[in-house]
Amino acid sequence: MPKDTITRHIEALIFSSVQSINVQEIILALNAVFEEEIIETQVFESLDEIMQKYNSNNTAIELVNLNNGYQFLTKKAYHETVNQLQLHRSKKKLSQAAMETLAIIAYRQPITKLEIEQIRGVNSDYSVQRLLEKELISIDGKAETPGRPILYTTSSLFMDYFGLNNLSQLPQLKDIAKEENTIGEAAE
User: Fold this and answer.
1) Among candidate residues 134, 139, 113, the one with its CA nearest the CA of residue 125
2) Residue 141 contacts by C-beta under 8 Å, 6 or more apart in sequence?
3) Among 33-37, 76-80, 85-89, the least confident range
4) Which of 44, 49, 53, 98 could join 94 via S-S bond, C-beta 3.0 to 4.6 A?
5) Domains in the chain, ordered, with CATH?
6) What end-to-end distance do the CA atoms of the chain give, in Å?
7) What's the average model confidence in pLDDT over 158-169?
8) Are 170 and 106 in contact (CB under 8 A)?
9) Cα(185)–Cα(27) distance, integer angstroms
C-alpha cells in the first residue's frame, strides 16, 4: 500500500472523529479496509507527515496528540475568532418549551397560536416570539376563521438548522414510539 494513500486515510479518520482517535483505532479501521496489514510504525510515520503538513503557517488547524490519541484543533492564534462563533451559537439554543412549540408547528403547519396552546396546554406567546426572532418559523398569512388569527409555518432556516430537504423527512411517530410505551394488545 502506498504511504501517501495510508496518510490520506489516516487524515480522513482524524478529521471525521468527534474526539481524539488513538493509534489502535486507526489500525483497526485501516486493516478493515485494506487487504494488507497496517502496522504501528506506518501509522506513526503518517502521523508525523500530517503534523508537519499542518504545522505550516498556511493553515488554521493543527494535529494535536491528546489523551493518547490524535485530533485536529484550531491553532491558538484563532481561538478568539472561534470563541465568538461558539458564543453566538450558544445564544441560539432552544428551550424545552420552544422545542415543543417548534415541533407542533412543524407537524401541524400552518397552525394558529391558539391551536398550539390547545395542544401544549399552556400559553405559548413567549415561545412563538422567540422562534420568530430566531427565524425558525414564519408568518404564513391569516386563517379564514373568526378573528382571522395568524398562521405559523416553519422557515427555510428551520430546514437548514435540522438538516432537512423537505418536511417529509421529519421523523414519524411510528419511527420514534417505543413498543414498551403502549398499553394493551395491538389490534390487527
Assistant:
1) 113
2) 110, 150, 151
3) 85-89
4) 98
5) 3-78 (1.10.10.10), 96-177 (1.10.10.10)
6) 57
7) 81
8) yes
9) 49
In this structure, what C-alpha cell is assigned to residue 2? 502506498
Q: How many residues does the chain have?
A: 188
DSSP E strand stretches across 29-92 = 61-66, 69-74
Q: Which three cell numbers stand for residue 20?
A: 481524539
Highest average pLDDT, of 82-96, 109-123, 149-163, comes from: 109-123
Name residue, grid cell 500500500.
Answer: 1
- How many C-beta neighbours within 10 Å does residue 183 have? 4
**pTM of the predicted structure, to 2 decimals:** 0.52
Q: What is the pLDDT of residue 188?
A: 56
Among 54, 22, 53, which residue's Cα sits nearest to residue 40?
22
Residue 119: other Cβ atoms inside 10 A:
16
Contact (CB, 8 A) for 63 and 46: no
Q: How far apart are CA 39 and CA 36, in angstroms?
A: 10
Mean pLDDT of the chain: 88
Kindly give, in sequence order, each residue whose CB lies less than 8 Å from that of residue 154, ignoring residues fewer than 6 positions away: 102, 105, 106, 109, 136, 137, 138, 167
pLDDT at 98: 93
The three-state secondary structure class of 113 is helix
